[in-house]
Design a protein that fits this description.
The protein has 175 residues and is mainly alpha-helical. The chain contains six helices and two strands, in the order H-E-H-H-H-H-E-H. Helix content is 77%, strand content 5%.
């Protein structure tokens, strides 16, 4: 019985020891989180959200959504007293409002995407420089994009380089 325990312990240590060895030199990075996590990104996103165009779009979308909700509540509340033509008219208004909201949402997303693409273009060189320096400094043999993985321990600083890259980019951009 003691020999079985020893074999089990030996096999367990061998397995866990080899898995730790396999992870040595492998790191993961999330480029989207880097490009959107820098101080520069926060400034530009805040600027976008403070812009009158963006505020007008979001305010209009919220107003139309509130109106749509009120109409839906009215339809539900007064369903038994409304005529079929009144119900149909309310449903058409709801549908029109819904389509307007979708269009406004697309416009909002387009503005956000424009800022994101500009951020990526403006920071690409600095990010690549920092990543290359980290690869050399940490002797990384394999760097994986987080979108290519099903899962990984994002809290493990040895594997997840994203927070460190964001910090280094922020320092680089302040120079």
């Amino acid at each position: 019985m003691k020999n079985i325990k020893r074999i089990f312990i030996f096999v367990s240590l061998s397995f866990f020891g080899s898995s730790a060895f396999l992870l040595e030199g492998i790191a993961v990075i999330d480029y989207n989180a880097i490009f959107l996590g820098t101080d520069l990104a926060r400034e530009r996103i805040d600027d976008l959200r403070d812009s009158s165009d963006y505020k007008d779009l979001t305010d209009e979308a919220q107003a139309k959504d509130s109106e749509r909700i009120k109409l839906a509540e009215k339809l539900k509340k007064d369903d038994s007293t409304l005529s079929d033509s009144e119900k149909e008219e309310i449903l058409k208004k709801i549908q029109t409002l819904y389509q307007s909201i979708q269009l406004l949402s697309q416009q909002i997303q387009a503005k956000e995407q424009e800022v994101t693409q500009k951020l990526q273009a403006d920071q690409a060189e600095a990010v690549q420089k920092v990543v290359n320096e980290l690869i050399k400094a940490k002797k990384i043999k394999m760097l994986l994009n987080s979108q290519a993985l099903l899962a990984f321990d994002r809290s493990d600083e040895k594997i997840n380089l994203t927070p460190e890259v964001v910090d280094l980019i922020n320092k680089e951009q302040k120079k």
